[in-house]
Model the fold of this input.
Amino acid sequence: MKNKGYFLVFLTAVISGFSIFINKFSVSVINPYIFTGLKNIIAAVFLSCLFIFLKDLKVFKTFKVKDWMRLVIIGLIGGSIPFLLFFKGLSLTSAAQGSFLHKTMFLYIAVFAAIFLKERISKGFLIGAVFLLAGSALLLKILPYSFGRGDLFVLLAALLWAAENTLSKYALKNLSGRMVAWGRMFFGSIFIIIFLAATHQAQLALSLNLGQMAWTLITSVLLFGYVITWYSGLKYIPVSKAACILLLGSPITTLLSIVFYGSPISLKGILSIAFTIAGIVLIFCGQYLFKGIKRIIYAGS
Done:
């Protein structure tokens, strides 16, 4: 089942790469709060329809109070608050710096997973993490040089998403991947609707034109695919390693820009992709590489 888990999470990374590419256009023409809220609501509707299609609604009858509470918390700290913090933070800091801080999320997931799920942090993971951070810095062509209020909001969002992924991994012991995905989207949507109503922004959804609705629908389908593959894969593999695989989404976005727009790829871009792949290889195969190197050294001596 581990192979299935890794395959599904790899699909998540591919979907993420396409989503980032498309979202660049969407957020430029739609209020980001409205955009996020509608995406979550539509994805939640898709997931609910999936339960009906699979005749799986009876699963809800088996839920205990603690199961509902976990899903509510997952929706709160994964499907609502961090999105609002992230978009607010991006409006106060540079896109590159915000993206870099967001890409450090895999480190927080690894720490939380080590503390609460007893997942092991190996030497290969630590060395691979350095490569992954270097790859992100090269891709974004920036290193954080200051830390303001916007950066704090992005960092808080990343920490909340890391906590949510850790809690989701724990919840997946008893729940299916699509059930956790539904909880994140459904309860997250409710909290975002409450926020939009409280800030008098909900009515803005009625002013969207057909083009904006089309962008929202396309990204909602991608979000639906993202959460289904992510949580279904996460059920079978360590969350710390799954989070690292997601970083492949950035190189995929870069490649899409090259294919569709003929954007030239710089030496930094090539190095970024190489560093990202090298980091993931070290995280997954570092122990075998180190053992092989030791054997060669001992054999030579």
